[in-house]
Design goal:
This protein is of the alpha/beta class. The protein folds into three domains: 247 residues, Rossmann fold, CATH 3.40.50.620; 123 residues, Four Helix Bundle (Hemerythrin (Met), subunit A), CATH 1.20.120; 47 residues. It is built from 14 helices and 17 strands. Strands 5, 6, 7, 8, 9 and 10 form a six-stranded mixed beta sheet that branches. Helix 6 links the parallel strand 11 and strand 12. It is elongated and about 95 Å long. 42% of the residues are buried. Bound molecules: adenosine monophosphate and zinc ion (ZN).
């Protein structure tokens, strides 16, 4: 039974979807004014593992990941770059999609862009005005009146001060992070906005940030959905505002499960675009870290725990992945042997599933996988694993990888040159040319590969330094 930590209610809860075999999930997507950084991808990878786990359990997942292509930071980017909004945001959206693919993040069903949903956004603002939750400010902007929505603060714990009227914030990112305030649904045009505006029934202006997620979630997924995800920093004000806008408009619960991932840190500080300590995924790849190693590192901590980006942590992820890739290759080369499936295969799958069911405990799932790999190596070394068992083990690892997405089942086990040396040595042994087979064994050893002869033929493994 899958249990998830619901930020709404702050507790572990059994997961019960609205529909029997389908889960509807909304994921706050990137703000496309720059390349996404590795902290952003921590959150996107967590959301992907969640999606994969649900699919692994047999649910059809309908996931919407929006593209925020108009908000304060983007307008700043437009001013700085001198490029039109659309050119800037399309460029970074394409880069984001490439990075998602490289990190083996499954595609969502929809990637709606805010600027293509002005109609839905305006309709929602109209409803909120009609129902008395929104009002116009003297400059023509439209604000949500938080005091009218009695549950405001239920998600994040921020409190409305009943003694003083709520202030008003026009910027998308509040400076004061603890106080509830009326927030902009629609921002009247300001000379700083330059060419970024729409002429609408509300006058010349642009939408506030949070309204897009309410409008697009309801358009694609319906008024009440199963899961909504994002990083911790989105809880307040963004998600609190989404709840207020959506529930005020429909009178229905907006989201059943809210899941938030913790920050990725660098040297004890949150990685944040505004702190200037960002490292993009692309920069890490350029330094020589493989995309799947980076993914392995990102899931090395549970999503609700902080994770520190260090060379050592990346190095550990690399070595764990290499061990697993090697086991895959060794399993493929097992031949003959007993026609039984070892008990550890079932035991591993049980341990793996219960770790993942425990609110996506990826470190425990990885520990179970590494332990299983070790057992498999011992069995291969001792000749106690036969073809049938190896196939069952490969199948179990592939089931686990459906969720983790860190292994490459297509990868050549060894580079072709080394594979050829192993083959030549096998042939030399078969024709009993022992001096040649010994010479080839030494040559392989100098390349870091040990070959061993077993009753079923040659097995190899890498020597570890
Ligand atoms: P943004 O493009 O800034 O809207 O962020 C995209 C996603 O990344 C959101 O879910 C954020 O909460 C998340 N995020 C931003 N910084 C970090 C970080 N350092 N660690 C984890 N998630 C982050
Ligand atoms: Zn959002």
């Amino acid at each position: 039974m899958l249990r998830l930590y619901n930020s709404l209610g702050r507790s572990l809860q059994p997961f019960k979807p609205i529909r029997e075999r389908e889960v509807r999930m909304y994921t706050c997507g990137p703000t496309v004014w720059n390349y996404a950084h590795i902290g952003n991808f921590r959150t996107f990878v967590f959301e992907d593992v969640l999606r994969r786990l649900l699919e692994h359990k047999g649910f059809r997942v309908v996931q919407v990941k929006n593209i925020t292509d108009v908000e304060d930071k983007i307008i700043k980017g437009v001013k700085q770059s001198g490029k039109p909004l659309e050119e800037l945001t399309k460029f970074y959206t394409a880069a984001f999609m490439e990075d998602l693919d490289a990190l083996n993040i499954e595609r969502a069903e929809e990637y709606p862009r805010a600027t293509e949903h002005l109609k839905e956004i305006l309709a929602l603002i109209r409803t909120l005005r009609e129902k008395g939750f929104a009002y116009s400010a003297p400059d023509g902007s439209v604000y949500f009146a938080v005091s009218k929505f009695k549950d405001y603060g239920a998600l994040s714990g921020v409190k409305l001060d009943s003694l003083k009227p709520a202030g008003r914030v026009s910027s998308d990112h509040y400076e004061e992070k603890t106080e509830a305030a009326d927030f902009a649904l629609w921002k009247a045009w300001d000379p700083d906005d330059g060419d970024v505006f729409w002429e609408t029934e509300l006058g010349k202006g642009r939408p506030g940030w949070s309204i897009e997620c309410s409008a697009m979630s309801m358009k694609y997924l319906g008024e009440t959905i199963d899961i909504h995800t994002g990083g911790m920093d989105l809880k307040f004000p963004h998600h609190e505002n989404e709840i207020a806008q959506s529930e005020a408009a429909t009178g229905k619960k907006f989201v059943n499960y809210w899941l938030h991932s913790e920050f990725l840190m660098v040297k004890g500080e949150e990685m944040h675009k505004s702190s200037g300590n960002i490292i993009t995924f692309r920069e890490l790849v350029a330094k020589g870290w493989e995309p799947l190693t980076i993914r392995m590192f990102l899931i090395s901590a549970r999503y609700r725990d902080l994770v520190d980006l260090t060379e050592a942590a990346l190095g550990q992820a690399r070595s764990q992945r290499a061990k697993l890739q090697e086991v895959l290759a060794r399993l493929r080369s097992v031949s003959g042997g007993p026609a039984s499936v070892p008990q550890s295969v079932g035991a591993f799958l049980d341990a793996f599933e219960s770790a993942m069911d425990d609110d996506l405990n990826t470190p425990a799932a990885i520990t179970a996988t590494m332990g299983f790999a070790k057992e498999l190596n011992t069995m291969i070394d001792g000749g106690t694993l036969g073809r049938k068992g190896a196939d069952a083990a490969l199948d179990a690892l592939s089931r686990a990888n459906e969720v983790l997405g860190v292994l490459d089942f297509e990868e050549e086990p060894l580079d072709p040159r080394l594979a050829k040396l192993i083959r030549l040595r096998d042939e030399a042994r078969e024709r009993k040319d022992f001096p040649e087979s010994d010479r080839l064994r030494k040559e392989l050893l100098s390349e870091g590969v040990v070959v061993e002869d077993t009753p079923r033929g040659t097995v190899w493994k890498r020597v570890r330094g």
